[in-house]
UniProtKB/TrEMBL annotation:
It holds the Pfam family DUF5753. CDD domains: HTH_XRE. It comes from the Bacteria. This is Helix-turn-helix domain-containing protein. Residues 16-70 form the HTH cro/C1-type domain. The lineage of its organism: Bacteria, Bacillati, Actinomycetota, Actinomycetes, Kitasatosporales. PROSITE patterns: HTH_CROC1. InterPro entries: Cro/C1-type_HTH, DUF5753, Lambda_DNA-bd_dom_sf.
């Protein structure tokens, strides 16, 4: 387990090393192309030191990388949201959002797919403003109204990934408790369930309900997220949230274990069609 920035450096370095090899260059040749010492290229590739996004652009140019999504992903891994002036919407909230949260948002914005198990609340990407406010008020003790406004604004802004030209593919397994927990009161919960029904009908969103009748299951250990990246599958990562931090698992065996767990949860859950019917019935008060 590692924290986000360390994982990003390792993944960025590994991908840059792969791109260099694909370009048929040694580390020394790559260094000469961009006017560096070879040791700098080595430190970047091993993830032992951070790197500026300007340096990543130099390397991508030297390696002939023109794929815009891959370039954007590499820049996100380099921390393009942390002070280089690039136009990322969350950059305006740097003084408010914890680094770990900004790190999560940057990965979410670049991911092609997201698989998530939720055991307590509706996924943030599908929350209504009123529901998001009730959850945030409970989670952020002592927050004043202005802080709540800002955090809810960020939560809703994140949902743009589901509306972009090539939307994020979201597959979520929701424990039945998520739908039965009355967050914010009956009216707020009814509107939230209605929002889930609308989302479940979209082609890029797959919702499945894991009923109480499924009994004990592998998901009882807690919620998790698996991010997948279209341009570079070896950059996939599992994110596990804790009260004060997020942990990132990126070893092949970790990814395989969580992928198998997610597939098992889907197999025990109601089908997407049955889940839609169940959520609609809950929304209607049945």
């Amino acid at each position: 387990m590692q924290h986000g920035p360390a994982v990003r450096r390792r993944k960025l370095g590994a991908e840059l090393r792969s791109l260099r090899a694909r370009a048929g260059l040694t580390s020394g040749e790559a260094a000469r192309l961009v006017g560096w010492h070879q040791s700098k290229v080595s430190r970047i590739e091993t993830g032992t030191s951070g790197t500026k996004t300007a340096d990543v652009r130099l390397l991508l140019d030297a390696y002939g990388v023109t794929d815009p999504r891959l370039r954007e992903l590499m820049l996100a891994l380099a921390g393009a949201d942390e002070g280089d002036g690039r136009d990322h919407w969350w950059h305006a909230y740097r003084g408010i959002l914890p680094t770990a949260y900004r790190d999560f948002i940057s990965l979410e914005s670049q991911a092609g797919g997201m698989r998530t198990l939720e055991t307590t609340v509706v996924p943030g990407l599908l929350q209504t403003p009123e529901y998001a406010r009730a959850v945030t008020r409970a989670a952020v003790e002592g927050a004043d109204e202005d802080q709540l406004d800002t955090l809810v604004e960020v939560r809703i802004a994140r949902q743009d990934v589901l509306r972009r030209r090539t939307p994020l593919r979201l597959s979520a397994v929701l424990d039945e408790a998520v739908l039965r927990r009355e967050v914010g009161g009956p009216e707020v919960m009814t509107r939230q369930l209605t929002r889930l029904v609308e989302a479940a009908r979209l082609p890029h969103i797959r919702l499945q309900v894991l009923p109480f009748s499924a009994g004990a299951h592998i998901g009882v250990t807690g919620p998790f997220v698996i991010f997948s990246f279209s341009s570079a599958s070896d950059l996939d990562v599992v994110v596990i949230d804790h009260l004060t931090s997020s942990l990132y698992l990126e070893r092949k065996e970790d990814l395989e274990a969580y992928t198998e767990a997610f597939n098992a949860l889907r197999a025990h859950a109601l089908s997407p069609e049955e889940s839609l019917e169940y959520i609609a019935a809950r929304a209607g008060g049945a």
